[in-house]
Structure prediction request, 428 residues.
Amino acid sequence: MLEKSQQLLQRATKSIPGGVNSPVRAFKSVGGTPPFIERAEGAYLFDADGNRYIDYVLTWGPAIIGHAHPEVVEACQAAMAKGSSFGAPTELEIELAETMIARVPGLDVVRLVNSGTEACMSAIRLARGATGRDKFIKFAGCYHGHADSFLIAAGSGALTLGTPNSPGVTAGTARDTLLAQFNDLDSVRSIFETFPTDVAAIILEPVCGNTGCIPPDPGFLEGLRELCDAHGTVLIFDEVMTGFRVGYGGAAGRFGVTPDLYTFGKVVGGGFPLAAYGGREDLMRHVAPDGPVYQAGTLSGNPIAVTAGLKTLQLLTPEVYEQLEAASLRLSKGMQAIIDKHGYPMTQHRVGAMFGVFFSDQTVHTHEDVHGCDLDRFNAFFHAMLKRGVYLAPSQYEAGFLSTHHSDEIIDQTLEAAEDALAEVFAA
Ligand code: KE4
Prediction:
């Protein structure tokens, strides 16, 4: 079943930490051997042992129009023939910036970078530079990449690995990161009572995608907007995961709350190392070379990555989001029917084409609620689905994603596998 992957993992661990280039890929949370993937196409992954999987990870979000989309492949091949990197401005970068600005509310100016981590750390530096303040508020369970100031009760991999404070992060750094609870405005108010004029920014995932999938309670985002306005604090939506995923205008467009700054990644890079930060013009003009807040990158705005991102956004029309919404609804309604039919202690959330399934009979509103879920059952479900050819995110603390290639037939196959897998899980 996974012999070749087991051999490859044994070899990989000799030369790469854990045999992987990002911790969550090692399956430490769910156990077992991670399939080594040879290729991907549409909604499918194909591993080194010839197994095919319906992919609900989609490289953690980017592959929203499916893997190896022929139009993206063709555009990137043509771009490659012109050279892969110039370290100089190109018209392509303007086109991508203008395309993003045209869709996202309150996005006036945007800077391209190479990863979501880089986008989030740059947005925090900008907020600090523009306000002259040092502290910022993040939320337990929200993940903004691996920059030092974020690895304080981080979500995603760090949380899964049970090491919320990573070694190597200094006490000095940690001192300026303040922690609040998602969907709990009082936890934010109490920080402002202690630090009324010290908080440069609040940064959050408007939909928590790094502790399962947890949508904002009604009024939560609006409350943060009001608190930031009252305290002169910059509101940053980390839309690395939700941007261009949960709707044409991302989460801000979907929920009708506009932040001062955004970060983007994943979908906007079309599967290439491309991310971005941007927002209000008066803030973004602080960024070098317009202003003194320094940020740079050799491969920022790389023409191949920009080609992939631009083609991906061009293919993501409003009609395509309606299709994604319908597919996601089909999956969640099907799952709910299985849960109700068998009376399983499970709950789920869905926002656009991202979702989360929790082994708990309590509605999940906060990161703490996820800790109360039955992680052993999640892990058993993960493996029961994997052996039935369905590749879910290898951690309860991750979200699932759909693409335009997740057809009704593929979703129905997934639901059949899920009913079978859950019977196995709950019979154990
Ligand atoms: P990257 O540096 O991994 O490109 O982006 C960091 C990041 C920032 N903000 C949000 C909301 C994110 O979800 C991420 C990265 N997400 C994880 C998956 N939960 C990436 C997967 C991984 O770490 O391997």
Q: What stands out?
A: Residues 22, 24, 60, 115-117, 120, 143-145, 156-157, 205, 209-210, 238, 240-241, 265, 275, 398 surround KE4 (CB under 6 Å).
